[in-house]
Amino acid sequence: MFELNDSAPAPPDHLIDRVTSYEADEDREEVLAGFLSTGQQSVRDIEAALASVGKSLLDFESILEFGSGCGRIMRWLEPLGAQSQLYGCDIDEEAMDWSNENLSFASFSANPAEPPLPYEDQTFDLVFNHSVFTHIDERMQDLWLAELHRVTKPGGLVLATVHGEVLLEQIEQGAAQTGESTYGWREQLESRGIVFIADDAYVGSWFPDFYHTTIHAPWYVFEHWGRFGFSVRGYLPRRALSFQDYVILERPLGSDDPVPANPIRPNSGAASGVPASAGDASAGDSSEAARLDRIEASLRMPPLVRNVLNLQADRINRIEFELRTELERLRDELRQR
């Protein structure tokens, strides 16, 4: 790990607000200290996530921060700029202008709310972001996953953070105290694996109309995100500022083909979260243990990830048991009529 160094000036208050959402009556020095300390900690979190797959920031030659804002994280990567090409992009054009003027060791570009990015195919061997997929709906996520695949080199990694169940628990606790309804969000997370909450604190704020709150289930990430040409190398709960979850994606070597226009694969492997090549290898063995073995071999997952999938398998088994029980009850009622 290189020595973290920050020699850049502080961004204007309103740019910091777009990253940390500080209140006008908060102490300016405390807000700035939090902005700087969380940026430094985020670099450590990125290094820890990379270490889980045997990598370090020093291993990459071309690095993109997707959603870099006014440089909360990037400002700490200045020493890395001596050996690596550093880039940042964001929809906030003003933040990109400020970053180009004050963080000269990297290059920053504004991008539209939807793809494309202003980069050539296979430009980066590492793309990372903090709190982008936590605020856009499934349709926009799918667009950006395909675009990040396009700009990532074969063998390159993408690190993305998501809101896990811990956020939903906090929302439910707050709603219980205020008497507000959570509108069946937990049921949606259980059934679909993703919840987009449009009626949240971002309504009427500076942020764009599409910017709200998104929560993911780990099983959804493995099943859905893997359809965009990536292998899911890891899922690390609460490893981003001890709150958001880190997802580690890899564009496999030899994957020069673009992602299909419709990446949803109509086969049993895709439906279960298993790439088709892995599912076909032992299609005759349908046991849960064999299925997990195929997934593990395909994704090269660490033990933590296998534990997540085991929990998901238990959840599915419980749901199937409840459905079978209810079906038998209904059959009994019909027989008695």
Give a written overview of the molecule.
The strands form two sheets. Strands 3-2-1-4-5-9-8 form a seven-stranded mixed beta sheet, sandwiched between helices. Strands 6-7 form a two-stranded antiparallel ribbon. The termini are far apart. Helix 1 crosses helix 2 (28-51). The chain is 42% helix and 17% strand. Residues 264-286 and 294-306 have low confidence and may be disordered. It is globular. The protein folds into two domains: 13-250, Rossmann fold, CATH 3.40.50; 269-336, no CATH class. It is α/β, with parallel strands linked by helices. Strand 4 (124-128), helix 4 (138-151) and strand 5 (152-162) form a beta-alpha-beta unit. The chain contains eleven helices and nine strands.
Layout of strands and helices, then pairs:
Blueprint: H1 13-20, H2 28-51, E1 62-66, E2 85-90, H3 93-102, E3 107-110, E4 124-128, H4 138-151, E5 152-162, H5 165-178, H6 185-192, E6 194-197, E7 213-216, H7 218-225, E8 231-240, E9 244-250, H8 268-271, H9 276-281, H10 288-299, H11 303-336
